[in-house]
From TrEMBL:
Pathway: Pyrimidine metabolism; UMP biosynthesis via de novo pathway; (S)-dihydroorotate from bicarbonate: step 2/3. Residues 160-308 form the Aspartate/ornithine carbamoyltransferase Asp/Orn-binding domain. GO terms for cellular component: cytosol. Its EC number is 2.1.3.2. This is Aspartate carbamoyltransferase. Belongs to the aspartate/ornithine carbamoyltransferase superfamily. ATCase family. Catalyzes the condensation of carbamoyl phosphate and aspartate to form carbamoyl aspartate and inorganic phosphate, the committed step in the de novo pyrimidine nucleotide biosynthesis pathway. The lineage of its organism: Bacteria, Bacillati, Actinomycetota, Actinomycetes, Micrococcales. The keyword Transferase applies. It catalyses: carbamoyl phosphate + L-aspartate = N-carbamoyl-L-aspartate + phosphate + H(+). It is an enzyme of class 2 (transferase). It comes from Agromyces badenianii. Keywords: Pyrimidine biosynthesis, Transferase. Heterododecamer (2C3:3R2) of six catalytic PyrB chains organized as two trimers (C3), and six regulatory PyrI chains organized as three dimers (R2).
Amino acid sequence: MRHLLSTRELDRDQAIELLDIAEEMAAVQEREVKKLPTLRGKTVVNLFFEDSTRTRISFEAAAKRLSADVINFSAKGSSVSKGESLKDTAQTLQAMGADGVVIRHPASGAPHTLATSGWIDAGVINAGDGTHEHPTQALLDAFTMRRRLHGGASRGRALDGVRVVIVGDVLHSRVARSNVWLLATLGAEVELVAPPTLVPVDTSSWPARVGYDLDAALRGTPDVVMMLRIQAERMHAAFFPNTREYARTWGLDDARFDALPPGTMVMHPGPMNRGLEIAARAADSQQSTVREQVANGVSVRMAALYMLLSGERGEA
């Protein structure tokens, strides 16, 4: 695999292979010495033009556990804040001998530009670009679902027939987009639920149903309910009347959580707005996978770095 830019580009076999490698990496995390020599001598650059805690630290931990050298780059305090272009930054990384670049950028398509421009020879992983995609988040979500549903027999398994309801700010969510394509590839049935103002104008090509009534969607006994964060920082208009109205109509409150079957998984990509999109009791319950998602993120990102940087990289 040359780059990891979008879940839409992964076929079923590639997705399952990534999840299976992540299982092997998860086994490494349970050892006393949580390191492999696989990427010794390789240099991974975390190139973050947007603030991040979970994703950046997760990629840093993943690269270090594979014995790679890690360089963390933040746009704040760098030449980017002085007006340096993405091309100039990429050429600087090329001169430094970067083997892999993990990029988060506010502009949709920036990772694709970096990967296809010829500015740099490194493998590129998209760690979130604008409102476009966040493929490793979708992979760790699928990995978490597969582990919960299939346990120790998850290797080689997909998510055929699993019903997933994704709720909230779909319009601004790169996590939702990546999950829709990956989960459909793995055989899951996906339904998006949101206020009409927070659904993209055209979802006709998306492999998912779209609804506006959360209670109706939950009556269908989904296997997974994934709540999305309200991304106020990307909103420049009034997309719903107020936070109280949103929580009442589209939030996973105590009443809705109590009505869920005991086996239904509750997911959230984080960070959570407790009391808005999800109640504290739901977030902290045994059905919640929020902490598992964070832990699984390291294993999945180790798998992604391994696929890109170990041995000879193949064609995309």
